[in-house]
Design goal:
CATH class of the largest domain in chain B: Alpha Beta
Largest sheet of chain A: none
Distance between the termini of chain A: 100 Å
Strand order of the largest sheet of chain B: 2-1-3-4
Helix content of chain B: 40-55%
Number of strands of chain B: 8
Structural class of chain A: mainly alpha
Number of strands of chain A: 0
Number of helices of chain A: 17
Distance between the termini of chain B: 7 Å
Number of domains of chain A: 2
Order of helices and strands of chain B: HEHHEHHEHEHEHEHEHEH
Structural class of chain B: alpha/beta
CATH topology of the largest domain in chain B: Rossmann fold
Shape of chain B: globular
Largest interface: A-B, 71 and 75 residues
Shape of chain A: elongated
Strand content of chain B: 5-15%
Helix content of chain A: 55-70%
Radius of gyration of chain A: 28 Å
Largest sheet of chain B: 4 strands, parallel
Oligomer: heterodimer
Order of helices and strands of chain A: HHHHHHHHHHHHHHHHH
Chain lengths: 441, 263
């Protein structure tokens, strides 16, 4: 009977990790629904980007307040995970504070965890105040109603509860150590929970053990629940920020890819030796002609889909978007959220039916309207400011390509502009032969 | 007073069996827009005064295709690009300078994959290099001590990370350079990019160029310096909408340098 907690622990741990793995596989499968794009080049520059931007949080402090708070929570999160390792080993082996043999180093570690936990708690509370009391504008845009708003707050509540449980567990432990309770080794430094433990004076040893054990169990189960919550949440960024910055575009931000399918056609048109009446070769692929641009998530490339899962809806892009600032419908964050929602819908459809069954919906119109797409000035402010190098702009431009090349649905003034370019080589109706007139005016 | 502009074409160079040091890509705005033509002329005056061996394509130049590409018309873009590349490669062009950041970005970044690989410079970068080589001298002249703010063109700044060349030139003019609260990486767009220049904006509560002009006006400038013909138009309109055109000029950096030298 004495092994029941260990077995229970292993079962819970396996279930938590198992369900998480299953869902992460879905995320990877969904991302792979995207078109291929080669990002295997220039590995050293990619690692450098990842180290600087994701690991080093290089772009976060462009906004100092949220940046510094985020770095505190981020460092706290990473380092406190060392403590989770001890908890997991203790849980499996039925030991208590197995790393305590480290002596002074252990005191230092536990002391640091406590200070970090406290700072994380403070940081998260400030984040909550920014969202719900100060009501910072970017958290109250129209796309943030409903689930995105609750999601943002739920994450903060999770972290508040986990940090509190951690400190309560330590405070109870400290009190038990002082009582000389069996099993509770004298170990660790408790710079924060020493102020909590006096609250437990006068509580019986038995009750304290129940308190300590409850905090310990709820804390670790809470972590596993939180881990599994990621899949349903914008909080996936804590994992995907790393691959996202690694695979991000390395070219100048102003460079837009040249569609290869178009290049083939253009080269054929320009080739004086091409036979316009040539019959297709015998072995020609009679498959569907390639679609230009994107009307649904499967027309986007996998990096764009990875972008959508990585987006944590911070809204820096939207708050810097000139169109959004001047009241237009476009919000780059909404472009990313819509892409993820639609991708999830396509993924769920595949899960349900074995393969994708047409649901009569697509990203264009059902999620993103042409009005949003045409409001973009392609200024790259959203790309520049994104702390994890997401490019909403590339999705906007791919969708414009679909609108223009597949649907001929550009605004009429743009059609005029394009007709001018076609006819006289300038966006305005001036004769190409007059191009030098300025020199003798 | 100024002499007649010397604007040789590539065809003329070819006829003489010579090749110029650099091709000046004038661009559609620089060729046809009344305001931008002044920038083109000012830049040519500087090229003439620095004895730069340059030529233009003249009637052989055609739109780079940038507005078509940003509108989503990849076909039209590539048709334009391939045609232009054919012309430029026939003239064996190696180096290109342009006063338009949109042409600059397209020629520099999007032409190489289609067979057009050139050393492309924005005119502010080119003027800076002339300065460093001692071929051009820049002195403050009438701009000395004037309060000036510089509006970063998106396609020069964020798109290609060129922030310092225009500012270095302004410093040489001994102006009092005041930055807007949003500048460089954070600079707000003028509202013209992505083919917006050629259409009415979507419904909103304000025009982007007005929002940006307000940024500029906060710095209480005498001149708003620009480095793009489209930004120039948008900021000029913004200044007009604020009824400040009597007290604030919108000038391209090339115009400022040419004026400072009484060219």
């Amino acid at each position: 009977m004495e092994y029941i907690p260990n077995i229970l622990f292993v079962l819970i741990l396996a279930a938590g990790i198992g369900y998480f793995t299953k869902n992460i596989r879905k995320v990877i499968r969904n991302i792979r629904l995207g078109k291929d794009v080669n990002r295997s080049d220039n590995k050293s520059a990619r690692f450098k980007n990842m180290a600087k931007i994701a690991l080093g949080q290089g772009k976060m402090t462009r906004r100092p307040v949220s940046g510094v708070l985020h770095i505190i929570v981020y460092i706290g999160f990473i380092i406190i995970n060392i403590e989770v390792l001890e908890i997991v080993i203790d849980g499996i082996l039925g030991t208590h504070r197995i790393f305590s043999f480290l002596g002074g180093a252990y005191d230092f570690l536990i002391g640091s965890f406590e200070i970090l936990a406290f700072l994380v708690l403070v940081g998260v509370i400030i984040f909550w105040i920014r969202r719900n009391v100060i009501k910072i504008k970017r958290f109250w845009s129209s796309e943030m109603k409903g689930w995105p708003k609750s999601d943002g707050n739920l994450i903060l509540y999770f972290e508040m509860v986990l940090m509190t449980l951690f400190l309560v567990m330590n405070a109870a432990d400290l009190q038990l150590q002082a009582m000389g309770a069996d099993h509770y080794v004298q170990a660790g430094a408790y710079p924060i929970s020493q102020f909590i433990s006096p609250l437990f004076e006068g509580i019986s040893q038995g009750a304290l053990i129940v308190l300590e054990r409850s905090a310990w169990w709820i804390h670790i189960i809470g972590i596993l629940v939180f881990l599994n919550y990621l899949y349903f949440s914008k909080h996936l960024h804590i994992l995907l920020a790393f691959p996202n910055t690694y695979f991000a575009n390395l070219k100048p931000q102003g460079e837009l890819d040249n569609l290869e399918a178009v290049t083939k056609e253009v080269m054929l048109m320009m080739d004086p030796n091409a036979d316009p009446f040539a019959a297709p070769a015998e072995d020609a692929d009679e498959g569907e002609p390639e679609k230009f641009g994107a009307s649904d998530v499967t027309d986007l490339n996998w990096v764009q889909l990875l972008n959508s899962y990585t987006c944590t809806e911070c809204g820096r892009c939207t708050s810097e978007c000139p169109a959004n600032q001047t009241g237009k419908k476009l919000s780059p964050r909404k472009i990313m959220m819509d892409t993820r929602d639609r991708l999830q819908e396509v993924g769920d459809n595949i899960d349900k039916n074995g393969s994708f069954v047409d649901d009569g919906k697509q990203l264009l119109n059902d999620y993103i309207s042409p009005e949003e797409l045409w409001a973009c000035t392609s200024c790259n402010a959203c790309v520049e400011t994104c702390p994890v190098n997401i490019s909403p702009l590339s999705i906007i431009l791919d969708m414009r390509r679909y609108l223009v090349m597949e649907e001929s649905a550009a605004p009429s003034e743009l059609n005029n502009m394009m007709t001018n370019i076609e006819n006289n080589g300038a966006p305005w109706p001036f004769n190409q032969m007059d191009r030098m007139n300025w020199s003798n005016e | 007073m100024s002499e007649a502009l010397k604007v040789p074409t590539m065809a003329e160079y070819m006829a003489e069996g010579k090749k110029p040091e650099v091709l000046f890509w004038v661009g559609c705005a620089g060729s046809f827009d009344d305001r931008a033509k002044k920038i083109t002329k000012a830049f040519v005056k500087l090229l003439n005064s620095a004895n730069v061996d340059f030529a233009v394509l003249g009637t052989e130049e055609s739109c780079t295709g940038d507005p078509a590409k940003r509108s989503g018309n990849e076909f039209l873009f590539q048709m334009q690009a391939v045609t232009n590349i054919e012309v430029m490669n026939a003239y064996e062009i190696k180096k290109v300078v342009t006063a338009c950041p949109h042409c600059f970005n397209t020629l520099k970044n999007e032409y190489p994959a289609l067979g057009g690989d050139y050393d492309v410079m924005h005119h502010t970068q080119f003027l800076k290099s002339l300065l460093e080589e001692g071929r051009l001298t820049v002195e403050g002249g009438k701009f000395k001590g004037k309060r000036i703010t510089f509006h970063d063109p998106c396609y020069l700044g964020r798109a290609n990370n060129v922030y310092e060349a225009p500012r270095d030139l302004l410093r040489k003019l001994e102006v009092e350079l005041v930055e807007m609260k949003r500048c460089k990486q954070k600079g707000l767009c003028c509202g013209a990019g992505g083919a917006q220049m050629f259409k009415e904006p979507e419904a909103g509560n304000k025009d982007i160029n007005v929002e940006r002009t307000e940024d500029a006006l906060e710095t209480k400038p005498e001149i708003i310096a620009a480095g793009c013909p489209f930004c120039n138009t948008m900021m000029t309109d913004g200044v007009k909408s604020k009824e400040k055109e009597e007290s604030i000029e919108v000038l391209d950096i090339a115009e400022m340098i040419a004026t400072a030298q009484d060219l």
